[in-house]
Specification:
26% helix, 10-stranded antiparallel beta sheet, alpha+beta, 261 residues, Cyclophilin, globular
Length: 261
C-alpha cells in the first residue's frame, strides 16, 4: 500500500518532471524549423541506441567491456540537452555527503566538490527536488565489471533529468594502462554516461575493484556499511541468473539527502 509520504514524494517528483518538460517544450518550439532543430534530429536518432552499448571515443572503437560498461541510454529529451544544467550553488572547496536511505540499508556517499563541482552541484539540486526518492537501482553487473547502477527515475536505463553535465576528474584514478583502462576501486561512486559529456542522473557504485576506461566521472566514495549493503545485493545475483541486469534483490532509494560536511 502506498503511504501518504510516498505519495507526496511521487507528486513532488512528477511536478518537477512536468516543469522540466514544459521548459523543454518551450525551447523545442523556439527551435522549430531552424537549422539547429534539423541537426538535433540526428542526435535524437542516435539516442535510441541499444541498451548496454556505449561509444567510448569519437571513432568506432570499443573496449572489451563495451557490452557491460555503466551507461545510460538517453531519452530524446536527455540526448538533446533540452535544459541547461542547474546554476552553480555548491561550495567548490567543500565536501558534501549524499545519504541514501534504501530498503536494503543506508548508503552514505562522500562527494568532493573541488574535483567534480558540476556533478556534486547536480546531485544537490536533484536531491533537494526529491528526484531520487522512490527510484530503483535498475542494474547490477556481476561478471567482468562489478557495479550497482542507480539514479534512473524510469527504472530502465533511459531516464534522466533533461540536462547533461560535463565529465570531470577523469584523471582522478590515474593514467590508463596499455589496455586503455584504469582501476575503479571498490567503494568508488562514478557517473554512468552515453558518451563524452552526457552525464545525467545515473551513477554506479563499485563493490569490487573494476577495470574500465577512464571515461566515467569518479565523484565520490561510499562507506563500509554501504559497501556491505551493495555486496549483499550482488551476492543475490541478477534476475534470471545472468551477469548483467536487474538485481534479484531489488534496491529502492527511499530518500536521498545531500548536505555540506
Amino acid at each position: 500500500m502506498v503511504t501518504s509520504d510516498q505519495r507526496r514524494r511521487q507528486l513532488a517528483r512528477d511536478k518537477y518532471q512536468r516543469q522540466q518538460q514544459r521548459r523543454a517544450d518551450a525551447r523545442r518550439r523556439s527551435r522549430r524549423n531552424s537549422v539547429i532543430a534539423a541537426s538535433l534530429a540526428v542526435v535524437i536518432a542516435a539516442g535510441g541506441a541499444v541498451y548496454l552499448s556505449v561509444a567510448l571515443s569519437g571513432d568506432d572503437k570499443k573496449s572489451d567491456n563495451a557490452a557491460t560498461e555503466p551507461t545510460n541510454t538517453p531519452s530524446p529529451e536527455q540526448s538533446t540537452s533540452s535544459q541547461p544544467e542547474p546554476a552553480m550553488s555548491v561550495d567548490k572547496k567543500a565536501s558534501y555527503t549524499m545519504a541514501l536511505k534504501t530498503n536494503q540499508g543506508d548508503i552514505t556517499i562522500t562527494m568532493d566538490a573541488a574535483k567534480a563541482p558540476h556533478t556534486v552541484n547536480s546531485f544537490k539540486h536533484l536531491a533537494d527536488k526529491k528526484y531520487f526518492d522512490g527510484t530503483k537501482c535498475h542494474r547490477l553487473t556481476t561478471s567482468g565489471i562489478f557495479v550497482l547502477q542507480c539514479g534512473d527515475p524510469k527504472g530502465d536505463g533511459t531516464g534522466g533529468p533533461g540536462y547533461v553535465i560535463p565529465d570531470e576528474n577523469l584523471n582522478g584514478l590515474g593514467k590508463a594502462g596499455a589496455d586503455g583502462s584504469v582501476t575503479y576501486p571498490k567503494g568508488t561512486v562514478a557517473m554512468a554516461n552515453a558518451g563524452a559529456n552526457t552525464g545525467g542522473s545515473q551513477f554506479f557504485l563499485v563493490y569490487k575493484d573494476t577495470k574500465l576506461p577512464p571515461n566515467y566521472t569518479p565523484f565520490g566514495t561510499f562507506d563500509a556499511a554501504g559497501l556491505k549493503v551493495v555486496e549483499d545485493v550482488a551476492k543475490a545475483g541478477v534476475q534470471g541468473g545472468a551477469g548483467d541486469g536487474a538485481p534479484q534483490k531489488g534496491v529502492t532509494i527511499e530518500k536521498a539527502v545531500v548536505s555540506k560536511k
